[in-house]
Each structure stands twice: as C-alpha cells, then as structure tokens.
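Worked Example 4.2. Consider the chain below.
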Amino acid sequence: MADSPPGRPSVRRLDPVLVDRIAAGEVVERPASAVKELVENAVDAGATSIAVTIAAGGRKLIRVVDDGGGMGPEDLALAVERHATSKLPDGDLDRIDTLGFRGEALPSIGAVARLAITSRMPGTDRGHSIVVDAGQKGPVRPAAGQPGTRIEVTELFAATPARLKFLKSDRAEAAAVGEILRRLAVAHPQIRFSLTGEGASSASLVLPAETGPGSWLRRLVAVLGPEFGQNSAPLSLERESFALDGHVGLPTFHRAAATHVHFVVNGRPVRDRLLLSAVRGAYADVMASDRHPVVALALTCDPALVDVNVHPAKTEVRFRDPGLVRGLIVSAIHEALRREGGRSSATVAARTLESLRPAQAPPVRAPAQAAARPAASLFARRDETAPARVQGSGRPEAFERDFGPAPWEAHEPAQAAYEAPPGGFREADQAEFAGDVARPSADQRNPAAADASPHEAAHQTAHPLGAARAQLHETYIVAQTRDGIVIVDQHAAHERLVYERLKRERAGGGIARQILLIPEVVELDPAEADRLAEAAEALQDLGLVLEPFGHGAVLVREVPAALAGGALRALLTDVVDALHEGGADPLARRLDAVLSRMSCHGSIRAGRRLRPEEMNALLREMEATPFSGQCNHGRPTYVELKLADVERLFGRR
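Applying the procedure from the previous section yields the following structure tokens:
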C-alpha cells in the first residue's frame, strides 16, 4: 500500500483498552447504566435476592451481590473479555430470551473504573475473584465468598475523568439508580431487591420477594404506592401470538409525568415509544393531555416476534407487527376501564377532604366553651386566608366560592338540640335509605325545584350515586348515598353522557340528526370554512351536515339531535379546532375529538336550574354509562365523601 499523503494520518487499529473505553460510552452512560447491566446479569443468573449498595450516587462505589448461579474460574476469566457471553447458546440473535447478551458490559465497566468480581458456584467449597483496573486485567485467584456473585465497581470514570463533568448531583444519580431497580423489580416480583448506601437514603428501597396469587399486584403496590391497589383495574387479553396482562389506573388517578408507566416485554422492562403511544391513545378520551396514567403492563410473546437489539441500552424494542400490539393494548385498556363504569379514584375524595380542613388547627376550647357553640355546617364560610381546591370544580378558589355559603346561618345562638334547617337536606335522614324509596328534595334557593311536587319515584338503595338532595348555585348536585354524600358537577357529568351517547349512535349505524327548519349561514375565517368543507363528508357521519356557502362561510342544514338548539358558530369553531389539533392522527381519533368538542355544546350548562327528577335521572344515567367518573377533559365529574370522613371533619370521630 502506498504511503499516506503528507498531513493525512494512516489507518490503524485502535488500542484494545481505548476500544473498551469507546464501547463504555454506549453501555455505561452514568452509574445507573452500570447498575442496570450488573443487576440484569444477576437476574439472568437465576438470583432470588439482589442487593445493591452505592456511595456518592454510584461514582465512588457500586456493589451488587446476588445469590445466583455464580461462575467458575474459566468463566470468570472470559466474562471480562469483549464479546464473551453465556446467554446466546445457539448464536441466534432473533430469539433472545435473556436480559443481557452483549459481551461488552463487564469489560466496558472495567475500562473506565476498577472492577472486582468474586463468584462462587453452588455446591463448590470455594470461589474465585478477578480484578480489572482501568482496562488492565488481573489474574483469577481463589477467594472466599458465599454462593453467587459479588461485583464491586469503584471510582467510576476515573480512567475517563471528562465523563464525570456530565454527571448530575449524587442525589440525582442515586435517584436514577433507584428508578432502574424499581423497573426491574416490577418485571421480576419473585426476586428480592434492595438499595442502600451513602447518598442513596432518599432512593433507598427494600422490596421483598413476592410469590403466589396476587404477587405482581403486591409488587406494583410496593413500587407505585399503596393508592394504586384500590385505584386500578386488572386486565388480561390474548390475541394471536401475544398475551397481555397488567393493572391500569383509573382515569382520575393520574400523574404529571409518565414515570409511573411500566412496560415489561418478555421479562424485560422497556421504555418504548410505540407502547407509550398506545397507552396515551387508550386514555385520550378520559384524561387531560397534560396528565399521565399510572399503568403496569406485561406483554409476552415468542422472542422471534420482537427485536430487543435496537437500542444500546435495550430500553426500546421493535415488533414484527406493531399494529397488532397497539390494537391489543388499546382494546385491553378500554375494556378494563369500561368494566369499572363511572368509578372515580379514591384520591379525589382524599384531596377534597384535605381542602376542607383548615390550614391551621383551631385552638382547643374548654368543654364548656365548645358546648356553647352550635354544630358548624359543612358549607359554612371558611377563613378567607385558607383557600381550598375541590376536585371537579377546576377552579383554584376557596371552597365557598365553588359551592357557596350555607343556605342557613351557621352561627346562630346555641340551642339545646340542633335541628336541620329547611331546604337542602330537610327530608332525608340516613334511616330512610334502609327502605326502597328515597324522596329527594331541592335546594330551597331554587324556586323552580322547591315548588315542584315531591318526587316519589323509587330509588334502590344499591345506587352508588344515591338520591339527589339539593342543587347548589345551579351548578352542583348534592346527593345522599347509603354511607355518605356525592357532589356532582352537572355540566361535566352531562358532557360525558352526551359524548358516550354520540359515540354509541355512531357505532350503531349513525348519529341521529335534526333538520334545521331554516338552514343557517355561519360566517367563519376563510381557512376555517375551507377546513370544514374538506371534512364535510366525515362530519356528515357525525350528524353535522354542512356545505360551502361563498367565501368564508358555510351553510348548516342538519345537526346532531342531541345538540339541537345550540349556538352553531361556537359549535363549528370547536369542530375546526378539533380537526386542526388532530393533525396527522388517524381519522377515527380525530373524529372522536370532534365528538368530544360537540358534546360540550349539548350538555347541561352550569347555571341551569334542575328539577329533582332531572337530577336523579342524571345520576342514574351516570351509573349506567362507562367513563362517567370523568369529563371529556379528564377532570372528575363527582366527588364522594363517606359519612365517616365528614364526621371526622367535625370531630365526631
């Protein structure tokens, strides 16, 4: 070969240690990356207990101890060589059924730190150890140790100090290690996991091994919090060669980030965009776009149907049939949430109770002083300096601004025996729900309802939302259940009911339409009018029949029967916005968004007075309608307070 031109370097082979350090840039990005590789090796080794200890967020020390199968001296010497592994016995990259398989993790870690491994196989009388320091491999020596493997990584990135500049604080790095362990723990509930050490106090964890029926849910509760158990629904669905199991949080049980979404594919925790998109699509109708569900899903399939070698950190996968997987996830979540009906999460009531409690504990009064004061109303005006937020109202205002002051004066002179004031709750006491009939009454401030004849329709005691007792501020319905009260946002609730009705009609052959006696011309922005004209055929399937009418205008001939009498211009503006926001989404999803916007115009508005029979009809329809626990925007439609919780507010418990 001719010599290289002056000034141009010749091609040469890199030093093996430098090659390992370059590989470490992909495999070991931060301490959590090293922990992931080491713990996955322990899982593949059949460990039932894995203990992780770190110092300084993992920079100074990472220790992983497991009770797995261990390694003999020959295997130990090969384990720190590049491209050496025990996990591909037949060399088939299309059927990978282990967590780790690239033979670069241990040599890469040894290239940028000091790596010490001590391992002993069960049934042998002694173990062996080896040390790799900044890429320099030492000899295998006999060593004492328990069955299993003990790996210590000290002074991570000491051989490449420039990488240390990119690490975050010790606390942040420890938190990342804890997150890695939690995701692996979700995937393997049968293994005990622990994390301890200097700098890991905030991220420390101890997760005992879970076995037997319900073991996975117990592990999920330990990782996702105790509230997840009572605010989630199980799911299980098989389709062709895929099986999906899991637990999904109720729509009103959500988080501000997607960190509580867990995916497991053939035992491997992943963070895959396809799977996350499927979950977001499944919750699109019932959760606000800026909130994220709490979900744990385990997908099992033939290893040949999924490629796990598409990302250096193995956090993403690629399916042979992504459409099938997406459809499976969306269908399973929809069915699980539909089975739950309109159930709202228990956290809504908990937050409501928290908002009702005063910011500061009231001073303790002597018994004589306390007896001289009357019982306070639940809706009595609170201290203006302690504002409250009530779930379902959507307004960051004080409680009385959401629900109004009491319809009676709460600070009257003391009486020997307190009697319920007229109106509101006057007819119902708890004993009345022991029979088959409950007689709802209306708020006395509502003349239309107060003058109505008593509603005698039977209400079975099994009704979860009880019987209407009052309407507050012509916006909120107060109902009494067997063991508490329910407060319903009438507009949010009816918006969901109209939306579900429109979806049923569309799926059942077409949305019922009403012909306008006189077609109405609606003036719009020219671009908006053009967008509506382009979507006219699709909108006709939604019950909205229109056609272009000159520049910047459309002629509306028919509207969905459920929306008759509404303001057409506002309706069309919302439809245009929904079409625009849908962007490149599939047509079906964009049409659902259009229906969601349209349903808002056909629902009972806040400020409308309702008769008792109307309020009860709304409650009954909510009980029979899926997803009625939240409106189309993901906010709760009702708040339920147990009688015991209300009694605690007044010190009765």
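DSSP finds 20 helices and 25 strands in the chain. The first helix runs from residue 16 to 27. Compare this with Example 4.1 before moving on.
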